[in-house]
Write a structure and sequence with these properties.
about 400 residues, 18 helices, Tetracycline Repressor, domain 2
């Protein structure tokens, strides 16, 4: 018969082993994606067999959900700590500072990795419903950091939700790029990020331009869609909505009222189609950047134009662009190639930022971090309607682009 002390030791060992499994799994899921990482991989990292892992988590989906819920709990803790500050400005600064400090503790080995939220859509409905419910609670908590008073109408509520989505997307997005900095420099990265989000990109006296010639920057919107382009659009929509698991050949074909045979007539397999969706996204971004680069105007004019055009594309008849978070579903070799391509496109935004700083239309700031936030904002716009239901091609720029350019609380 176990003594009370023995039971306590066994409980402690169980908790320690379970936490070790979560630590290893979060890192593996971040690196390989949930499709690429197996329970066997997790077991090898903690010295357990697959059968032993299933003693703690019966299925991989249970383990994914546990990793996500632990990250959401931590984010809620950071938001709760930030909420104790007085003004919205102080709360945003505290949230970013605390979050980057948490990433610094991971970088020096003091704390395990937080799991990327990109894998929520990889879960079956029974698990994703739980994860999304917790994520929604976390979102509302972070939205509260921005509120100085209770919004009195739908327009204010949409604007507040859009800005909360921007804050959460750009903060959590730092997990994918902050490791290019030395851990000792993370506090300075946090300062740069806080400065950018609170004070925007525009130099003092630079005005927001409410008009944009979309047709000149997105000429393909006026062209008829080919069957292959329609497949890419439908596949992109389903990948964004339901992740790799949900974007089946049957569902993609059904969305276009075509047969499964038509799918395989135009596509070898699903991985090749996802690769083509990435290539389509790269082409849209690259072509728009090139057109903007050749137009007259200040660096501010060009940065606003390319950002607004690409966010407009997200809501167009040919949109959306593929969410970057889907890259975890790609085979590892393909994933590396596609993300390098995305990294190069993100770097191209630096050109407009530097030009603006030279001509005085953009204030001096860390252009490498700013370029990442501009690219992150454009990518996050694909989910804007989830939080601001009245978001459209007509108002998306004011709801989502303007807060980054002029300041989150402007």
């Amino acid at each position: 018969m176990l003594t009370e002390q023995s039971e306590a030791r066994q409980t402690r060992r169980y908790v320690e082993k379970r936490e070790g499994i979560l630590d290893a799994a979060a890192a593996l899921f971040n690196r390989k994606g949930v499709r690429g990482a197996t329970l066997s991989d997790v077991g090898q990292h903690v010295g357990l067999s697959t059968n032993s892992i299933t003693y703690y988590y019966r299925k991989k989906e249970d383990l994914i959900l546990a990793c996500l819920m632990r990250t959401i709990d931590e984010m809620r803790g950071l938001a709760d700590a930030a909420s104790r500050h007085g003004s919205a400005t102080e709360r945003v600064e505290a949230f970013i500072t605390l979050f980057v400090a948490r990433l610094a503790r991971t970088a020096v080995g003091e704390r395990p990795e937080l799991m990327s939220f990109r894998e929520i859509r990889a879960l079956p409905a029974s698990h994703s419903d739980v994860a999304f419910s917790a994520y929604n609670d976390m979102f509302r908590q972070i939205r509260g950091l921005l509120r100085e008073s209770v919004p009195s109408d739908l327009v204010q509520r949409s604007a507040l939700s859009a800005r909360a989505h921007l804050l959460l997307s750009l903060a959590s997005g730092a997990m994918s790029w902050i490791d290019r900095y030395e851990p000792e420099d993370y506090p300075k990265v946090a300062q740069s990020l806080v400065d950018l989000l609170l004070n925007g990109i525009a130099a003092p006296g630079t005005a927001w331009q409410p008009e944009l010639d979309v047709a000149a920057l997105l000429p393909t919107l006026g062209q008829p869609e080919t069957t292959q382009q329609a497949f890419l659009r439908a596949a992109t929509e389903l990948l964004n909505e339901q992740g790799y698991r949900g974007a089946s050949a049957d569902r993609i074909s059904a969305r276009l009222n075509l047969t499964k045979g038509a799918f395989y007539h135009h596509n070898e397999n699903k991985d090749d189609l996802i690769s083509a969706c990435f290539d389509r996204m790269s082409a849209v971004i690259r072509d728009t950047q090139t057109l903007v680069d050749e137009m007259p105007g200040t660096g501010w004019d060009k940065l606003c134009a390319v950002s607004r055009a690409l966010v407009h594309y997200q809501f167009s008849s040919q949109g959306p662009l593929l969410r970057l978070t889907i890259y975890g579903a790609l085979p590892e070799a393909m994933r590396e190639t596609k993300m390098k391509d995305m990294g190069r496109l993100s770097t191209r935004f630096v050109r407009f930022l530097v030009q603006g700083m030279q001509d005085g239309s953009i204030r001096p700031l860390d252009q490498s971090i700013a370029a990442l936030q501009v690219h992150g904002m454009i990518n996050a716009a694909v989910e804007l309607r989830r939080w601001a239901r009245d978001a459209s091609s007509d108002n998306a720029a004011d709801l989502f682009v303007r807060p980054l350019m002029m300041g989150l609380l402007s």
